[in-house]
Design a protein that fits this description.
By secondary structure, the chain is of the alpha+beta class. It has one domain: Hotdog Thioesterase (Thiol Ester Dehydrase, Chain A, Roll). It has 2 helices and 6 strands, in the order βαβββββα. Strands 1, 2, 3, 4, 5 and 6 form a 6-stranded antiparallel sheet that branches. Strand 3 and strand 4 form a beta hairpin.
Length: 140
């Protein structure tokens, strides 16, 4: 995703319960980390869903696991967006381990999601709201 632009960063602890029997963070939790980051960004830009109206839906998600994470630790999830389409936007994330120096360092995973704006009653895609589109275009 070469035209992606940085829009948000959030730090979160690695929890003991995030680990599996192998002693590292279970792969499903990486998706939870990027979901938390995406929701925090959507809250910040006014893109939260209205269950009686419209809102964002994930239609595709992917993750590349590069290095394992273990407890204890802290991660930083960086969020990037691509130029928006009529009703969708590609959102990507980097999961980096925060080092003892407080800096986000080594890249441990890269994830992505295609977010489609949906009219829930009609069960069809809808144009991105103008306010959200403006935020996405200003990131370009």
């Amino acid at each position: 995703m070469s035209s992606r632009k940085f829009v948000h960063a959030i730090r979160m602890p690695i929890r003991w319960g995030d680990m599996d029997a192998m002693g590292h963070v279970n792969n499903t939790n990486y998706f939870r980390y990027i979901e938390s980051a995406r929701i925090a960004w959507l809250e910040q830009v006014g893109g939260m869903p209205d269950p009686r109206g419209e809102g964002p839906v994930i239609v595709h998600a992917s993750m590349s696991f590069l290095k394992q994470l273990t407890y204890p630790g802290e991660i930083e999830v960086r969020t990037f967006v691509a130029p928006p389409g009529r009703s969708s936007v590609e959102v990507s994330h980097e999961i980096r381990l925060v080092g003892p120096d407080g800096q986000a360092g080594a890249l441990h995973a890269e994830g992505a999601a295609k977010v489609v704006w949906v009219n829930f009653a009609a069960e069809k895609s809808a144009p991105l709201p103008e306010a959200l589109r403006a935020v996405l275009l200003s990131a370009e």
